[in-house]
Amino acid sequence: MNNNIYIIYGKDAKYMTKQLLEYADAKRYIPLGSKIAIKPNLVVEKPYTSGATTNPHIVEGIIEYLRENGFENIAILEGAWLGASTKRAFEVCGYTEIAKKYSVKLIDTKDDKPLKVNVDGFELNICSKVYEYDFLINVPLLKGHCQTQLTCALKNLKGLIPDSEKRRFHTLGLHKPIAYLNKAIKTHLVVVDSIMPDPDFEEGGNPVEKDFIALGFDPVLIDSFAAEHLGYNPYEIEYISLSEKLGVGKAGEYNLIEINPEKKPTEFSKRSSIVSRYAKYIEEKDACSVCYANLISSLMRLDEQGLLKKLSKKLYIGQGYRGKAMDGIGIGSCTKAFDVCKQGCPPKSNEIVEFLKQNL
Questions:
Q1: What DSSP state is assigned to residue 113?
Q2: Global pTM?
Q3: Residues 17/191, Cβ–Cβ less than 8 Å
Q4: Record's superkingdom (predicted)?
Q5: Percent of all residues in the chain with a pLDDT value above 70, rounded to a whole number
Q6: 4-263: which CATH topology?
Q7: Between the CA atoms of 156, 118, 73 and 76, what dihedral angle is there, to the nearest 10 degrees?
């Protein structure tokens, strides 16, 4: 297996991407006549400058490189997270314009018919369109995540499952199903956006200019690299070790090839304590990412307004609290049995803010 990870520094994302693909001789790994799917991270309807979504200029660079090397059958596949519109994300994030400019297909996997797949006895529901393509280019954003600490190549495939399956993944603790998902869907090439990610939070809001793009062929190895850049031992991220055990790829040693080290910016800082600072107010059990992220955003807003210090009760969130009533404040429809609860699936951040203000 190829254990090279290529990295390029700078600010011109499209040019950098093409240079990176050329240097790695990516075309050599793509069979002639392949139908190619590109999977960015468009988890929410926010531009890349928020630190939440994949820089569209990277995808432009990939498409131009592919076209220049004779590959014509190209599509962009994505499904935004629960409660968000993929089509709106395509528009806001610049992908609708890209599709028109380069005549590539945009496929909203939320419209797709799910296919039941059995992987070593573990059943998954996967959007069937991905299996119509021969070669998958995974284009994740290297960013923090409030529940799994890291989201990069392996977790990015969650956009290829239906919303009902996303909910089920959370009841299973995310790590195990993410590993099996990557066994069910093979990633052939990973191009990692770290131009302006949020190192703390998957919904963005605290972007940091890191000014690099990385490329590799093993998603497990790429996530090992990504974990180190966020200040973690790769084996602290459970789905990395589980994916390795399933044979998805190999964590650990990689051969780092820097194309233009003279442009290297300040070393990538460790994950800050933004999310952990607010997590102490929360009792979470099997919460969906979007619900949890909206709550974190709400606590950040309350803190900015000087009101968080007035919060005296614990906040409970997640599918694990269904049918239970506890002495605290419930967030989301899963906690509707609580005497005090803000319902919604998911509840919006601004609505949570106003609700908590009334219950301080």
A1: P
A2: 0.85
A3: yes
A4: Bacteria
A5: 97
A6: Rossmann fold (3.40.50)
A7: -30
